[in-house]
Amino acid sequence: MKIMQSDKNGIQIIIILISVMIFVGSAQAAAPVMGQVNSTTIDNTHIVTLYLDVNPSLTLNTTTIDGSSLTPPLDYYMFGDITPLLTAAGIGWGQPYNATIEMRCGYGSNQYRNTTPTTAHVSGVNEGNTYFPSLMELEQCAAGETFSKPLCEGWNLISLPLVPENNSAGAVLSGVSCDAVYRYNATSKQFEVADVMNPGTGYFVHATADCTWEYSGTPYTSMSISLEHGLNMVGWLNCSMDISDALSSISGRYHYVARWNATAQRFEVYNPRAPAVFNDFTTIDRGRGYFISAREECTLSESC
Q1: Does residue 72 have a cis bond before it (omega within 30 degrees)?
Q2: Residue 107: strand, helix, or coil
């Protein structure tokens, strides 16, 4: 039994997680383009990673820089300075290099590297102008979406189906009347206050009134989440699936899955070994958070 307790206006609110009794039993690769990328083809939400083929373990992660914002303005996007990377790899001035460039969509941070990358192979020469290395032609990032979900007064177990531009809890839950946001630490087996909110994680949000949660971002369509032995509070993708398909990567490696019924303020359970009549749900839905009781350490992997 694990207890999360918080004091709300003098009223003790206790959420009890009861261990449930177990029943018996790519984007297509773009062609390399030498030179700069024309600013009409991309925006500033791209993240580019350059890997030197001579030593792929050395990487440089950077956002593309809009040259039109500089003085004088330039009609292309620039890559960050790669001189330290070339130096670390032993590539001196005037020496050639081969590299792989990978692009993923995000919002100015490599924290959100969840989309299928576009890659290209390029060649260059270290001539000192390493703010302008050869780049690939980048694809347009996926258009943003808006997600909305009703929240009930009391506790709600949610997750993020979209990657937000600003992942602070205040920004993600802007417009929601709430006074507590918690995540579950599967290692320490304790609830923790959540100051930031990311896809792939489940969050308990305490709403002070019925309301509608709405935020915008890009679709979260692929996940690979490490699960600890015991309870894990996870999020889900920007799609809904039959639970047996959704959890096929950990089939036979979990006891049960629990979700939270915000209307009734109680847990509902799915047990893969139980007769269907005993299960409260059979789908994994976007926007919901879930507890997974893992039999052992494993990795939950899936994509929409």
Answers
A1: yes
A2: coil
